[in-house]
Amino acid sequence: MCSEGPTLDELDEDPYPIYARLRAEAPVSWVPSLNAWLVTRWHDVRQVANLPESFTTANSKAPLADYCGPQNILTLEGDRHAAVRESVDDCFSWTRASAAVAHTRAIAADQLRTLAGRDEADLMGEYFEPVTVAALGRFMGLEGIAPTTLAHWSKALTDALHNPEQDSGRAQAGRAAVADIDQVVGARLKELAARPDDSVLSRLLRSGCPQGTSREPEAVLSTLKMMLSAFREPSWLAGNTLYALMSRADQLAALRQDPQVLGAAVHEGVRWGAPVGVIGRLAVKDVALNGVEIPAGATVLSAIASANRDETVFPAGEEFDLRRPPAPCLTLGYGRHACLAADLVPKIVEAALATLLHDGPAELRMTDDVRPRGWKFRKLESLRVGWH
């Protein structure tokens, strides 16, 4: 057990040296600043994710249940979770995810045109976020809602869900976003109840229900809010990946020389630049993990960002290397709560990057000294680049 442990500021600045030390010295560690047990090794993180009898997502006191509602798919367990998941699993199939590439590239091309005639831009705010949020909105059946509104909702929810300082402004903004979603999307659900279509939203409402019936709107809205909270995460992944490529000239040159390796670069970005760094569970009972006793009711934080760099699984794991042999990582979840969009997100990110690198400026250079920050969510606040 770690008696003091890292501070929130230290984790926000750069958690990776801390994770490396914990993996070596205290892989299951009590961290007072988090009021939680932090798990940092690959095999332990997988075990926490895959043992529902010991570690559960069902936690009525968690911010996710508070803001999104206790019926969201991530908080549900057992048969109720399986029923909701089965109803939409095929909506996020590899085939449907692949079909999203064309409309993502069209959205990206339109967004690139807004940068024409300029010699610099903030790619986070002016390209990656608008493109990926719009692509996700269209995929989900929310194309009638402006991408700027979807991004606003996502930010408000993210800020409220991760609010260690208990900032009242962030909490109020989160509540306001919840009310807006209930009103705007609630009206859309009433339309879909009468006239269903093939959108994910419509499937969430009706699939798995007896003919002519549908789920309660509250249940659908609960899961949708959880999904909306993650709408900006693909933009963070795209930014982290491009940052890694631009920080290593040989990697970007290899990609320029052979655009076919972009998929490998995104796969490596998913591992190296995980936008969500930790996932939470609640200990169902007293349980031993890697020789450490965790008491029932304790919060357990699995550091997937640390697991993705575990040197026993990924040699030289701290390095971004698009030539790394493909291997599974934990960024998009594992086991019963693996991300529904595990196929979709990399394809949207790859399409956004491909359009930028193929149709955008031939030369890109970072104009600010920036790097990703954060431990719960790791991202670039901005990525200002210039070109000739």
TrEMBL record:
InterPro entries: Cyt_P450 (IPR001128), Cyt_P450_B (IPR002397), Cyt_P450_sf (IPR036396). GO terms for molecular function: heme binding; iron ion binding; monooxygenase activity; oxidoreductase activity, acting on paired donors, with incorporation or reduction of molecular oxygen. Gene3D superfamilies: Cytochrome P450. Belongs to the cytochrome P450 family. This is Cytochrome P450. It comes from Streptomyces spectabilis.
